[in-house]
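Structural prep section.
Before we set up the soaks we want a predicted structure of the protein with pyridoxal-5'-phosphate in place, mainly to decide which crystallisation condition to try first. Input record follows.
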Amino acid sequence: MAAVASIAERLAAVRGRIVSAARRAGRDPATVRLVAVSKGHPPDRIADAAAAGCVDIGENYVQELLRKAEALADLPLRWHLIGPLQRNKARHVVGRISLLHTLDSPELAAELEKRAAARSVTLDVLCQVNVAGEAQKSGVAPAGLLSLLDALRETPHLSVRGLTTIPPLADDPEASRPHFRTLRELRDDMARRDSALELPELSMGMSADLEVAIEEGATLVRVGTAIFGERAPKEHAA
Ligand SMILES: *Cc1c(COP(=O)(O)O)cnc(C)c1O
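Run finished without errors. Recording the tokens verbatim:
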């Protein structure tokens, strides 16, 4: 059971980091939820994480998420889709995931709305914002967020809970700070414009920069490598 111990130990270390960062920032550690990102790792590793108390599991690819969710259907897990979602796959995730972190267009919102309405379910979503304006990265531009949120007024089966960002890759965790701060400020700005809009969740921070994210207000940190170890080479493209 060495693998179990090692995941449990890694998890304990990650939880320790979360608690310390939250305390340092004067926040209640319970306001930060850990999403264990299991892409590239087999279901039995996720079961190990679940045995060590993990409930929220993040995957990047729809088919991989569905396959693992089915294999682990007996466990009380909440599945998060944290990778880009193509419109033609929207129907596969409605009713199957707990939270979509990557809503980035009114067209995708409309498709999800249609599918959720047909099944009479509500889907919780976060809007992904391309804060740094990187060319290849998905996410709505900051300037387009307002109109995306406006479009979400017309989608009663989607519940927008907050914002997500993935900052540019960097060696220094501090390099992420301005991007995390921008996301929080965007959220505050949007909430000020419309008091009915709460946007309590900020999904930001990964293995390398979760402390900085928590200091800047993250409520969901997406942590893969620090829990599961290095990933095998990517199975398939998004
Ligand atoms: C893979 C991934 C993570 C986890 O990254 P680690 O550096 O392994 O913690 C978080 N968020 C997204 C969107 C990812 O694709």
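Observations: The chain has a mean pLDDT of 95.
Flagged for discussion at group meeting.
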